[in-house]
Design brief:
Keywords: Membrane, Transmembrane, Transmembrane helix. This protein is mainly α and about 70 residues long. The protein is built from 4 helices and no strands. The protein has one domain.
Length: about 70
């Protein structure tokens, strides 16, 4: 093996290592995207279709409307 190919191998390994480290953050990015997109698409109304008798419906409705 030449020195150039060893350097290339080290670069590829470091890139793969960095890619594996970034995959751990996908779950937090997915949650953040969901929180942002729920009000954009109006999905909060799916949670408040059925009216509950107690105060929980009002609290859920106020929280969901406040996210907009």
């Amino acid at each position: 093996m030449t020195a150039c190919s060893r350097l290339e191998e080290k670069q590829v390994i470091s890139l793969m290592k960095n890619d594996l480290q970034y995959t751990q953050n996908y779950s937090t990015k997915a949650v953040r995207a969901a929180v942002i997109l729920i009000p954009v698409f109006g999905l909060q109304f799916l949670f408040t279709i059925y009216r509950l008798e107690d105060i929980t419906h009002q609290v859920i409705n106020l929280v969901m409307d406040g996210l907009q």
